[in-house]
Amino acid sequence: MNILVINSGSSSIKYQLIQMPEEIVAASGMVERIGLDGALISYKSGDFKLTQEVDIPDHETGLLKITALLLNEEFGVIGDKDSIHVVGHRVVHGGKTFSETVEVTPEVKEKIKSLVPLAPLHNPHNLKGIEVAEKVFSHAKQVAVFDTAFFQTMPQKAYQYAIPTKFLEDYDIRAYGFHGTSHKYVSEKSIEYLKSEKAAYSRIITVHLGNGCSISAVKDGKAVDHSLGFGPANGLIMGTRAGDIDQSVIFYLIDKLGYSADEVKDILLKESGMLGLTGFSDMRDIEAKSAEGDETCRLALYMNGYRIKKYIGAYIAAMNGLDAIVFTAGIGENSSVIRKIVCEDMEFLGLHLDHRKNDVRGNTLRDISVPGSSVKILVAPTNEELEIAKQSYVLVN
């Protein structure tokens, strides 16, 4: 079965064509800068790679360009559009309605639309991807996989805010969690790996570190707490997002310094985090500057790691122990520096980092803890597209 996985953003479409149940990636790529000058489309199938600068005014044009590449007589991987049996869509916010993957219906689309106020930067573009795919692949089943679904298992003591209860009951204001597809995938892979060594690994902390960052407590395979809440802004320090901040700072910026609410939102979401601390949002630049002796960048790295360590401590308490910490996503998988900062001075937990293993890059799940450590340190490559394909395949079968 050919499943086309689409992750539709405000100006991009990330895609993979995956053959299921074999889990073979037949083709993959990305459309970037939709509606802007210098739009790009990339395509990879086996050893063949292609990147083109083309005019892509909207998402429909982008998806048609992707289809043309998949159908190309020379390097394409399908014979016609009907060879796409299922289109799996990443949808960021499912609210409290969607606790599992669903086939798209008019009612589902209306509910996704109603949740736009909860994820204004994501849900409109996710919905646009669905609507465009319905037109382009009219014979395929459309499936929605929700980032928030994995966190529907969080208990109320974890997801409810200490504000008047009417805001939860009347307006669904609560913690929902994000990056759920990634956390689900790596926690399942990690538990599967650990069970081969010990029968009852059940308390996992998954650390998703990219431009957006989040950390989850996963007990017995189910999420019990998570750092991101009502929106994808709090918790860990991110590329341009501040993460946790005293609400008094927001009031002070508005009431005393004269910033508008919109200006404060832009400051906290687009101008803060590692960018606000260092002038760089890319961790590679910050690590390079730190290595050259830049104390500002060095401090930012340790602030980043310190925030992660605090959440690890909280989640160990919440789960009454810990069996493994799992690093994933672009920074989590590739930054030996951040992993070292997070894991140092944690020996009291039975957590011992093997520095030689930590410095070795790899693209498979690996254990970087010292042999015999009671708490394992794992690096697990995430694969959100494969997780979406797997969930879509299970649903339609």
Written overview of the protein:
The strands form two sheets. The chain has an eight-stranded mixed beta sheet with strand order 5-4-3-2-1-6-8-7, with helices on both faces. The protein is built from 15 helices and 14 strands. The N and C termini lie close together (10 Å). It has helices at residues 59-71, 106-114, 123-136, 156-159, 166-171, 180-195, 247-255, 261-270, 273-278, 283-291, 295-319, 329-334, 336-343, 355-358, 384-396; strands spanning 2-8, 13-19, 24-32, 40-45, 48-53, 86-91, 102-103, 141-146, 203-209, 213-219, 222-226, 324-328, 366-367, 376-379. It is of the alpha/beta class and 397 residues long. Catalyzes the formation of acetyl phosphate from acetate and ATP. Can also catalyze the reverse reaction. It comes from Yeosuana aromativorans. Homodimer. Belongs to the acetokinase family.
Task: Please give a handful of descriptors for the protein shown.
single chain; 397 residues; alpha/beta; Nucleotidyltransferase, domain 5; six-stranded mixed sheet; 15 helices; 20% strand; globular
Low-pLDDT residue intervals, each spanning 5 or more residues? none
In terms of structural class, how would the helical and strand content be classed?
alpha/beta
CATH topology of the largest domain: Nucleotidyltransferase, domain 5
Distance between the termini: 10 Å
- CATH C-level name of the largest domain: Alpha Beta
Strand order of the largest sheet: 5-4-3-2-1-6-8-7
Total discrete domains: 2
Overall morphology: globular
CATH superfamily of the largest domain: ATPase, nucleotide binding domain
User: Helical segment tally?
Assistant: 15
Helicity level, as a percent range? Answer: 25-40%
H-E string: EEEEEHEEHHEHHHEEEHHHHHEHHHEEH
**Beta-strand percentage?**
15-25%
Q: Using only CA atoms, what is the Rg? A: 21 Å
Strand count, sense and closure of the main sheet?
Answer: 8 strands, mixed
Average of the residue pLDDT scores:
91
